[in-house]
Amino acid sequence: MSAAMDTESTYSGYSHYSGHSKKAHRQGRDRHKSPRSKDGSRSEKSVTIQTPPAEPLLGNDASRAEEGQDDNWGETTTAITGTSEHSISQEDIARISKDLEDSVGLDCKRYLGLTVAAVLGLLVFLTPIAFILLPQILWRDDLEPCGTVCEGLFISVAFKLLILLIGTWALFFRQPKADIPRVFVFRALLLVLIFLFVFSYWLFYGVRILDSKDTNYQGIVQYAVSLVDALLFIHYLAIVLLELRQLQPMFTVKVVRSTDGESRYYSLGHLSIQRAALVVLENYYKDFPVYNPALLTASKSRAAKHMAGLKVYNVDGPGNNASGQSRAMIAAAARRRDSSHNELYYEEADHERRVKKRRARLVVAVEEAFTHIKRLQAEEQQKAPGEMMDPREAAQAIFPSMARALQKYLRTTRQQQYHSMESILQHLSFCITNNMTPKAFLERYLNPGPTLQYDRDRWFSKQWTLVSEEAVTSGLQDGIVFVLKCLDFSLVVNVKKIPFIKLSEEFIDPKSHKFVLRLQSETSV
After folding, report:
1. Strands 251-257 and 463-468
2. Angle at which helices 391-412 and 438-446 pack, to 10 degrees?
3. Which residue in 186, 243, 249, 307 has the most C-beta neighbors within 10 A?
């Protein structure tokens, strides 16, 4: 009975903190909010890549608000509720209005491009049909009879148009993954080529067939068939330019996150800078570990502590020159710098010891909780079907026994802002539903995974800015460097061309591997 009461108190303590910590986080964000500085003085060209709407990146201000809390926050936290007043500056209002204008402009540009492509595609598919039907409508009585040959051409046009329709749907009608700052050059060239091609066919049709009212209907149908054949060849050209050209790797890009130096390498083909930026961002969300600003505060606090420990006393009175104080400060800083590596070593060793200790406690607590689940499952099998617990109820029943160990481990590794109680319960119920082991449950928390592993509102950045000295529509070249910026960090991309490899062949004579073993027999006399 006492164990059940302790379990309920632990569970209520966790819910108490999770309910009030969100208020503290919101107050911390409003308190620490400062207008971003404008970098208009930079000489690089800056354009924006906007992804589909989502919540902004979270975790920067919230982690700062949680720095001052100790490990026993479940017992020492005091929640203060009430009415708060918020202020906003003119620069914030201007920045918000600018973001709204940019989003509206990007939406208009995207829908305008889709509208133009749809109208042009409709014109392309209706043109061969119009070429065949107009003579039948305008001067049907004057047309020469066309029997089996025209019927075969009708079937050919129908199937070719069907193939062209399926190919166009597969190649062009896709859900857009992002809004790029400039037009896709090859796609724009293909649209212009198709427009000129169809316009020239209509011009020839109007001059040579409509004006003269040509009576050779078989020639008119063959003219429409030639148009469909040419459109199929243009579709093949589009496949080569849009899909096949970029498949062969030609460049190696190194992507470095500016805050913590995390880096990855990728191979790319012939792409423009803006499309290479999209490929980098797609791979970033699945390959890079989630950005955790709380891990960067240790070095900053250590440097601040060293500077705060320096004190200068003026023993000669207020009339002494300040140059002596500056020399004393420099000498003291040098002595502290010589001993700072020892402090860093012992800090890291102590942190590793604490992580290992709390990791062991967490593993034991989770194994005991899953053992309790097995006992519950054995008991549930003996009950009636209507009295069995669902996975959600089972997760809520065993969660309090592991909540404290999990909280302490997440705080020690500074992952607490990425795991809410609701997400942990959902993951626990998922593991129970699929009969997963304790190691499978702990994998998400013991090994910080890629960005996509976490909740979308915890990491998703709505807007990325592409900064490049070259035009973003130009192709990749050796030595190009461009930067992808978001709210809290930036990705620096360095492009290197894959070197030309000269491979030679050396022939080995099979007879050179043969040898003869000669034994010299010796007999005793």
Report:
1. unpaired
2. 40
3. 186
How large is the greatest C-alpha to C-alpha distance in the chain, in angstroms? Answer: 124
Residue 380, judged by CB atoms within 10 A of its CB (0-12, 13-18, 19+), counts as middle
Q: What would the two tokens of residue 171 be?
A: 């190649």
In a shared domain, residues 145 and 213: yes
Phi/psi of residue 495, nearest 5 degrees: -100, 130
Q: By C-alpha distance, which of 457, 485, 452, 497 is closest to 277?
A: 485
Any idea what DSSP says for residue 513? G
Q: Give a yes or no: residue 512 inside a domain.
A: no
DSSP strand pairing (263-268 vs 45-50): unpaired
Q: Which amino acid is at 335?
A: R
Encode pLDDT of 2-22 as tens digits: 444 444 444 444 444 444 444
Query: Where among 395, 423, 447 does a domain terminate?
Result: 447
266 forms beta bridges with 253
Whether 214 and 350 share a structural domain = no
pLDDT tens-digit readout, 235-281? 999 999 988 988 999 999 999 999 888 899 999 999 999 999 999 99
Report d(CA 437, CA 434) in Å as an integer: 9
Query: Tokens in use for 351?
Result: 């942190």
pLDDT at 39: 43
